[in-house]
Structure formats: C-alpha cells, structure tokens
Amino acid sequence: MSEEQNDNFDEAVAGSTMEAGDPAKDQIAQLQSDLNEARDRALRAQAELENVRKRLRKEMDDERRYALMPLVADLLPVVDNLGRAITAAEKNADVNSLLEGVKLVSQQLDTALGRHNAKRIEALGMPFDPNVHAAIMQQPSADQPPNTVVMVAQDGYQLHDRVVRPAQVIVSKEL
C-alpha cells in the first residue's frame, strides 16, 4: 500500500470511530459513566464507613466513661447508711447498736461488690498462694503446716478472675 493509501485508510478508520452511532464510542461513554458512578459509590461508602467509625468511637468512649455507673448506683445506699450510722452514733452513745449498724453496712457493701463480681479472697487457713496472697511476715506455728495462712492483715479482692489487691497475710513456718 502506498503512503497516500495508508493515510486515506487511517482517515477512514478514524472517521468511522467518530460517528455518533459508533458502538465503540458509546461503549467508552458508558464505561466512563460506570467509572464515575463507581467512584461516587466508593466515596460515599468511605464517608459512611468513617461516620460509623466515629459513632462507634463515641459509643466506646461513653461506655468507658460510664462503665462504673451500676457500681456507683449500688454503692450509694451503702454511703447513705454509713451517713445514717454516723448520725445515730452522734445522737446515741450505745456502742452495741452502732456496731450492729456498721456490721449491716459492711454486709451491704459486700453484697454490692458481689453483684459486680468483686469478691473477697479467702485466705485464713488456706495454703499460701503468691498469686492471690502477699506474705508480710512468717510466724512459727505448731498448729498449722508450713506455708499456711495463719492471719490476714488486710483482705484481698478479685474482680472475676483478676486480682485487684492481694490479701496481706502472715504465713506459718516450721518451728
């Protein structure tokens, strides 16, 4: 083919693809439209995802911030009863009734803690366990085998299975 014929052929091909009813041009326009729609959907989905993340982050922050609300609500009656016990002690010098009132408040506090899965660590008479006990002293004992808790200086507490505060204990040792 001569160069002139080649140019005419290229012009013919180019002219045929530029016609309005050309399927290739329609297909390109359709693909461009689909691409624009896909970009728009992707941007909207990304924005929606970011909004969901922000909402969840706020909900988690609120959940953390107010997580102790049930515990505080359960402790308020204990605080009220302690105030009543103090007021009663100021008005009445009867030590026995004050002691009974404080014992009731103590039981109420233990109950409130128990509702939130906080419990006292049993220690007295138990074998020493460094996971839940902190030995503050050893004491010779003929009554107890070695490494047995013979006295609790301060109660320990657990929340579920995690130690909040180990029990401070005195442990027996051989004579």
Strand content: 15-25%
Fraction of residues in helix: 55-70%
Rg measurement, Å: 39 Å
Structural category is: alpha+beta
State the end-to-end CA separation: 117 Å
Element-by-element helix/strand order: HHHHEEEEEE
Q: What is the CATH-assigned architecture of the domain at 119-175?
A: Roll
The major pleated sheet works out as: 3 strands, antiparallel
Overall geometry comes to elongated
Q: What is the number of beta strands?
A: 6
Low-confidence stretches: 12-19
CATH top level of the domain at 119-175 is: Mainly Beta
The largest sheet has its strands arranged as 1-4-5
Number of helices: 4
What's the pLDDT, averaged over the residues?
87
Classified in CATH, the superfamily of the domain at 119-175 is: Head domain of nucleotide exchange factor GrpE
CATH topology of the domain at 119-175: Nucleotide Exchange Factor Grpe, Chain A, domain 2
